[in-house]
Amino acid sequence: MVDIANMRPSMLRTLHENLADADYAEEFLASLAMYLASAAPDGGVDTDRLYVVGVQLSNANAWDHLKPVDVMRRAGHISSETLLTFTAGMPDAVARSFLETRLREAAE
Questions:
Q1: How many angstroms separate the CA atoms of 61 and 105, rounded?
Q2: Contact, 20 vs 64, CB < 8 A?
Q3: CA distance 106 to 108
Q4: Centroid of chain to Cα 14
Q5: Dihedral angle computed from the Cα positions of residues 76, 7, 49 and 3, in that order, rounded to the nearest 10 degrees
Q6: Would you state the pLDDT for residue 20?
Q7: What's the pLDDT score for residue 75?
Q8: Distant-in-sequence, close-in-space partners of 35: CB < 8 Å, separation ≥ 6
Q9: 66, 19 contact by CB (below 8 A)
Q10: Collapsing DSSP states into helix, strand and coil, what is residue 26?
């Protein structure tokens, strides 16, 4: 499992390349889904960490390989507060994809 909350700069520098490997991408996706499902924004450090993870993944171009719909399906229910905090620093198109996935799932 990948420690999503404590990714080192060296890992983030190679993340885009590593995600091109389907096995690694699946492991990373499972780790991210688990992290998001268990995240509990507290208005402090945990909230900041959740936001930073979203920014780091966006800066590493992770969304070129990982699709928000795949993250959401694997994570199960993610609280609205968690989702909004996680997507707050992302490019608009990626954040919108996460939120649209949430809306589609809620409608089903």
A1: 25
A2: no
A3: 6
A4: 17
A5: 40
A6: 97
A7: 87
A8: 4, 5, 53
A9: yes
A10: helix
Residue 104 has pLDDT above 90, yes or no: no
Q: From the CA atom positions of the chain, what is the Rg in Å?
A: 13
Supply the pLDDT for residue 43. Answer: 87
Tokens at 6, concatenated: 């404590």
Tens-digit pLDDT profile for residues 17-70: 999 999 999 999 999 999 999 998 888 899 999 999 999 999 999 999 999 999
How long a stretch of residues is the chain?
108
HSE, side-chain direction, 13 A CA sphere, residue 71: 26
CA distances from 94 to 5, 43, 87, 97, 101 (A): 20, 23, 8, 5, 11
What secondary structure letter does DSSP report for 5? Answer: G
| Per-residue DSSP letter, 60 | T
Q: At what angle do helices 45-59 and 80-87 cross, to 10 degrees?
A: 50
What angle in degrees, to the nearest 10, is found between the helix axes of 92-107 and 68-75? Answer: 40
